[in-house]
Amino acid sequence: MLSNAMSHILVTHDPLSVTSALNHITDPSCGGISVFCGTTRNSFQDKAVLYLEYEAYEPMAVKEIEKIVDGLRKCHDVRKVYVAHRTGRVDVCEVSIIVAASSPHRADAIQFVSHAVDRIKESVPIWK
Questions:
Q1: Is the Cβ–Cβ distance between 25 and 31 less than 8 Å?
Q2: Which of 24, 75, 79, 101 is most enclosed, with most CB atoms within 10 A?
Q3: pLDDT in tens, 37-53
Q4: pLDDT tens, residue by residue, 68-108
């Protein structure tokens, strides 16, 4: 886990909380907040899904997420960022990932979150 005034990055077996994300990223200088929650859906390629199992090498995953966040901060004016990813069993409709950001204007927060989700899925050592 990495946590400071500007970023909170967590890879955990525990259920994720949107309220925790919002509490971390809310900032009086920001007029835009964007939050993405990825959940387990009930099917994949026409096959029923009951749950997903996630594995991660936590220290490396946190470090890679931190690199992504730092890189995207150079392109988007965001103040606070929250990224959390579950490991272990994640049942249908449960949240497996939360990416949230606050910024003075909505466009930066929305774009930051979208790019962060894509990059996390591409390069962070978290496996289904």
A1: no
A2: 101
A3: 999 999 999 999 999 99
A4: 999 999 999 999 999 999 999 999 999 999 999 999 999 99
What sign for the dihedral angle of Cα 55, 62, 74, 95? positive
Cα–Cα–Cα angle for 48, 99, 95, nearest 5°?
30
Q: Which amino acid type is present at position 96?
A: S
Q: What percent of the chain has pLDDT over 90?
A: 96
Radius of gyration of the chain (CA): 14
Q: How far apart are CA 20 and CA 63, in angstroms?
A: 21
Q: Using the structure block, give the residue that is written with the tokens 């990825």.
A: 38
Q: Are 33 and 100 in contact (CB under 8 A)?
A: yes
Query: Under a CB-based contact definition with an 8 Å cutoff, are residues 92 and 42 in contact?
Result: yes
Q: Beta 7-12 vs 80-86: how paired, if at all?
A: parallel
Backbone angles phi, psi at 122, to 5 degrees: -75, -40
Dig out the tokens for 54 from the structure: 């996630």
pTM value surpassing 0.90? yes
Three-point CA angle 106, 3, 89, nearest 5°? 90
